[in-house]
Amino acid sequence: MFFSQFRLCHVVALVLATSCNVTWAKEQVPLNTKHNSPQPLRQYSWVRSFASIGDSYAAGLGAGNRIDWSCSRYDHSYPSLLNSNGFLGENPNRTHQYLACSGATSEEVLVKQASALDDDLDVITVSAGGNDVGLSIIMNQCIYQFFMSKTDACEDALNETWSKIENDLSGNLTALLDVLKPKLNKGHGKIYYTGYARFFATDDEICDNVTWAVWSYESQSAKQFLTLERRKIMNDMVQAVNKKIEEAVHKAGDQVIFVDYDSFVAENKGRFCEAGVIEPDPNRNGLCFYEWKTVDTGDNSTALHHAGDDVPKGSFESDIVEWTNKTLQEHPDWKFGPDEEVELDADKKGGRQVIGDTVSWLLPDFWKRVFHLRPAGHLLIAHLLMSKLAETASKISASETVEGYASRDD
Ligand SMILES: *[C@@H]1O[C@H](CO)[C@@H](O)[C@H](O)[C@H]1NC(C)=O
Ligand SMILES: *[C@@H]1O[C@H](CO)[C@@H](O)[C@H](O)[C@H]1NC(C)=O
Ligand SMILES: *[C@@H]1O[C@H](CO)[C@@H](O)[C@H](O)[C@H]1NC(C)=O
Ligand SMILES: *[C@@H]1O[C@H](CO)[C@@H](O)[C@H](O)[C@H]1NC(C)=O
Ligand SMILES: *[C@@H]1O[C@H](CO)[C@@H](O)[C@H](O)[C@H]1NC(C)=O
Ligand SMILES: *[C@@H]1O[C@H](CO)[C@@H](O)[C@H](O)[C@H]1NC(C)=O
């Protein structure tokens, strides 16, 4: 089952690659042809100690099968894809430390993940910064309104995020990179820092009358709409975060490389509210992010309609539950879901909600991963990373001889 899903993903990647009129698609990135190649290609064989750290974008929240409980890591995340046969290839000499954890801020990545890294790493992939500036709070206040304290809560949240981007983010990113650089192999080690992608298309006003507010009982005037102006502001924020990452990467020197996939998502029409799309359209071909009710090929759609397992306290998912729960405490008669069709899990609405490190997940499972990348989005990043790794290889093989290269050249 894994392999049929995997091949399907490559088909998606090919579609993405051909609809993207860009150079990385034409490079020597192995697509499905190299799928079962047991030997890593020469330009990737230098990657023997490999680590992936960061937040839910690096954990791949929601993409494929969950392979870890407390951090919500998934098997179609870009780190998982890279470490698989279709990408870096099988190499018994390669180690992969996969420490990314959903919900982590850059400070948590520094304290909990960076400290656990091996020394002398060839490659570290990182995704961090989005949680520092509260992107999930904006998703709550300006889009879904799982809990809304007052009518200008969205504006407050946007202001708060702008201030964090301007004042705190750079320092935090540099602090993280300063700790990561000494973990690299001194000769050829590299850090690949992945950014974020703008969530919304802004070509027309067709989404202006769309609200994704989850409580139908909420007064119409209190609901947030996906207006063109709002979409542009939220996009600007993502770009501002990317810009800060790019600057921090530049400042950190040539051991660190920024991996910017934002324009590919845009060019592929992979965002919400693309021109002519009447939202919600969660299963639209080419949509790169999860919308509520998105079902990927290979997903169990029955399971996605039911409340699944408990979720880790402090995670993205538990924020959603706690916001929802707070609204229910104030308005026990309110129904969840735009069409009031969602029966919240009655057992879990009661007392038994927080036990140790877990929070009961009382919503249908497809809410868990909204605004995260679908497998096609992770594929895009994995392909982009492969081309960056190949670029790095062409530089290091000119300046450095690494033992064992020749024997593994196929
Ligand atoms: C793994 O390392 C051993 C010892 O250095 C070497 O002989 C072998 O060729 C390597 N195998 C691969 C697939 O790189
Ligand atoms: C947000 O910032 C804008 C511009 O700085 C300001 O005019 C507005 O009053 C702020 N809104 C809130 C709710 O603080
Ligand atoms: C992140 O920035 C905030 C605000 O400047 C600061 O309090 C915090 O210590 C920073 N964290 C790191 C790891 O630099
Ligand atoms: C918004 O407007 C479009 C046409 O402009 C219409 O097709 C769609 O049903 C409307 N959506 C809502 C939620 O009213
Ligand atoms: C899908 O999920 C349902 C409900 O959780 C379960 O009963 C069923 O066995 C699952 N099907 C597959 C193919 O895993
Ligand atoms: C929901 O709120 C109630 C009352 O405040 C509390 O006892 C319960 O633990 C909360 N559950 C969650 C998941 O926050």
UniProtKB/TrEMBL annotation:
InterPro entries: SEST-like (IPR037460), SGNH_hydro (IPR013830), SGNH_hydro_sf (IPR036514)
Cross-referenced SUPFAM superfamilies: SGNH hydrolase
Gene Ontology molecular functions: hydrolase activity, acting on ester bonds
Secretion signal, residue range per the UniProt entry: 1-25
SGNH hydrolase-type esterase domain mapped to chain residues: 53-271
Keyword line: Hydrolase, Signal
Domain of life: Eukaryota
Transmembrane regions: none
GO biological process, any: lipid metabolic process
Pfam families, per the entry: Lipase_GDSL_2 (PF13472)
PROSITE patterns: PROKAR_LIPOPROTEIN (PS51257)
Keyword Hydrolase: yes
Gene3D superfamilies: SGNH hydrolase
PANTHER family the record matches: LIPASE 2, SGNH HYDROLASE-TYPE ESTERASE DOMAIN-CONTAINING PROTEIN
Protein name: SGNH hydrolase
Organism: Mytilinidion resinicola
Phylogenetic classification of the source organism: Eukaryota, Fungi, Dikarya, Ascomycota, Pezizomycotina
